[in-house]
Amino acid sequence: MAHLGNGASLCAARGGRSVATTMGFSALDGLMMGTRSGTLDAGVLLYLMEQGWDHDRIQKLLYKQSGLLGVSGISADMRRLRADGSPAAQRAIDQFTYRVVRESGAMVACMGGLDVLAFSGGIGEHDSQLRAQVCEQLGWMGVRMDAGRNASAPGDAAHAIHAEGSAVEVWVVPTDEGRVAAREAARLLYQEDDAPTPVPLPEVQA
Asked: The domain containing residue 186 runs over which residues?
């Protein structure tokens, strides 16, 4: 599962249970994000401290001034970077894509193979170019994308975008953390007999 947006992470699941994730102790770890650094050599922090940086300055850098914004110097918004077209914007896009591909390999290794790849989050749901680039670079695993399906993915319903004969299913799945959180809260607040009727998830479009 590739949740790609201002916050970004990958999760490898087998039998419905997570076996690996790019997330770590904090939301900083793992993939490069909109303004967060993602995985960083700890030596960088030691260097900054040697240069006189204090806790607050380092924290601001890592959480608010890194990621797509920090690399491009333009924006944390992938849509704006796509429209910009400058070398700096392209560098940030390329680095973001590279990190997704690299960490995908680690997730697949932890699962021992890949059956389904799902894109979600603001970038994952709406950036067909990124999905195409990631799938192309994962082609050695048997991932085959249907260009037409990818381009027409609605972003508001689960939508299959893999080509016929692909060894791996590829889906675009809309994210709704609010609904999931509400359901979990309802399970705690209500007994099973008087729990409210759950709101159905978006329909799947094969």
From this structure: 114-206
User: Distances in Å between the alpha carbon of 206 and those of 73, 133, 136, 162, 163?
Assistant: 39, 22, 21, 10, 12
The structure's pTM equals 0.85
| Residue 45 · residue 58 · CB < 8 Å | yes
* Domain final position from 112, 134, 164: 112
* Close Cβ partners of 38 (under 8 Å, ≥ 6 residues apart): 8, 28, 29, 30, 31, 32, 66, 67, 99
Q: Using 50, 70 and 90 to split pLDDT, how confident is the model at 192? A: low
Alpha-carbon distance of 44 to 42, in angstroms, equals 5
CB atoms within 10 A of CB 200: 7
In percent, the amount of the chain with pLDDT more than 90 equals 82
